[in-house]
Amino acid sequence: MSGTYLGMPAFPRAARAAVADTQLRRNLEHATGTIRGRRAEVVAELDDWAELRAAGAAIKDHTLRHLDRYLVQLEEAITAAGGTVHWARDAAEANRIITDLVRETGETEVVKVKSMATQEIGLNDALAEAGIMAWETDLAELIVQLDRDRPSHILVPAIHRNRAEIREIFRRAMADVPADLSDDATALAEAARRHLRRKFLAARVAVSGVNFAVAETGTLVVLESEGNGRMCLTMPDTLISVVGIEKLVPTWADLEVFLQLLPRSSTAERMNPYTSTWTGVHPGDGPQALHVVLVDNGRTGVLADRVGRQALRCIRCSACLNVCPVYERVGGHAYGSVYPGPIGAILTPQLRGTAGPLEASLPYASTLCGACYEVCPVAIDIPEVLVHLRAKAVDAKRRRVLPTAERAAMAAAAWTLGGPRRLGMAQRAAARARRLVGRLRWPLTGWAESRDVPTPAPESFRAWWRRTRGRTE
Amino acid sequence: MRIGLFITCFNDTLFPRTGKAVTALLERLGHTVVFPAEQTCCGQMHLNTGYQREAIPLVRRFARAFADLDAIVTPSASCAGTVRDHHARVAESAGDDRLATEVADIAPRVYELTEFLVDVLGVTDVGAAFPHRVTYHPTCHSLRALRLGDRPLRLLREVRGIELVDLPHADECCGFGGTFAMKNPDVSVAMGTDKLRHVLSTRAEVLCAADNSCLMHLGGLLSRLRAGTRVMHLAEILAAEEKAMSPARPHHRAPGARRTEHV
Questions:
Q1: Which candidate, A288, A317, B108, B118, has a CA 20 to 30 Å from the CA of A205?
Q2: Residue A92 is part of a domain; what is its CATH number?
Q3: Does residue A191 sit within a domain?
């Protein structure tokens, strides 16, 4: 259902197939272009955006610095309000806890609120193995689930599909779909609405993620557009909320900053239609059992990295995906993770390590153009982290006796650039071989396949200067 | 004012005529330009690819080569950005306090060419003439690292005879990205093609920018396509005069195309 990312090829290979998918290219160009423009408009409305952004970053940094204290405070507040807190070191432990909690209720179906944390841990597959069916209720997440596909965007998991494709998916996989379903947006939404309504009315257990967890009060917060989340959060008897430990904010007042930053950055709305908050359990009102599963799954490792830890500020708005020129042409699947785009390129290698070819290739899946950093509502300097991860990868390989081809080339370049005499010699050699350089394929294959190779000048600038002006400096 | 030209290793080797243009331009404006011969490279390629250690001697060399100059001018937004934004961190990571001091002292004196012309010399009309249809691509480092804003356009608008046309979606990356162009060639070319779609829609004869690296990528695509549009560093446009109006030859030569020497 949510798919597995094991054995994914390195980014460049997956990207080669993706850029050749013409339908995908047009779908993404349209979707990201539209939301990019809208976001710019609503952000421009606030003259204190820079201050809000700085405040968002500062609150997150402060919370992460004192995460030990705030996590315990959150646990105490939730427990005092009648909820139960569970701690999960990794995905396997989180899935085990959640599976056991559902089993205890005796139910074999759960409804889900759109949640990145549960996608990250592969909860749907784990539940399916235990004979429990998890129904996604977010419209885009439902489309992906019905198609047995993978999400390709943080906010809009089915962004790679257009309406005609969604109609086909519904007709193929939705049990109770009208025979004459059109690809009109209202008709598609209505079909999904009727389909989901039956799930909401029957569900006894819901699983959610959270956007924020307030340590001071033990309050959990979900922002959404559709209202389907609100159904899941209020109608069932049991609610299981899965919370990545970086989701904390210290106080209720801190929400003021994030409730401005997130909707404008994410859906390009001044305020999202539904904001649900819940604190423990209340007799006769909403779920009577609340379980909160706090998930680490690699986050404390990220927290230990002085440069890389800023990735934990992320509030999953997806603004960086929407402005990323690489994402726009490749889509989310090539990133091999539920976290695609620029944030995925820095989060996935940090959370999973860089042993796999995909994870190792992600820090290079960027031109460092800086558009992501510019729009990030919590000022994550993504290019800085990308370069940091590249340096870590290079340093990890320095112990090897045989250098990689890249390291050998970089060492040769560093030697050549070590002084004007060496550089001058190399330039003269290149000038002599210039006719050859223009025809070079290897090692310039990647370049020369589609682009002409520049020819070294017959006389370098420094040689020209010396010839015409002598050595003045 | 002692103005030092930071040519950059890339322009030095591949695009010396950009350096000649900067020299000619500044001299035409009545300034003396010096070329510190000890300079080689700012270390950008090493730093962006993760070879921090290899970049340390390059940063040290840069600091020493340009130490006694009042202004250091470069025809590259990305190299100016590397010196201003990254050299301090290299010095810190090297644990070299003396280098850190030198780097902090030099960084504010490093200017990309259009910054130097507009902010320091206070000129926008540099006396250039270039009667061609031109569009300007703000490279990512011009736009988001140095925040050059409209400085290049203010300079270009004053050029005699120029027909300057706006580039649609100008703020999008061209797909060069240094080693990205080699490590992810498919995405790089896809981005370059989309950029060219906008460039060609302007019907400009010349595409100019403040970085020859991005222009090498786009120019390589344009010449492969025989598109009839060429690339040119904006310094070469600003240096152009009425008397020398013949267009420069293309940067790229198509395989099999007839070869003509250019000096």
A1: A317
A2: 3.40.50.10420
A3: yes
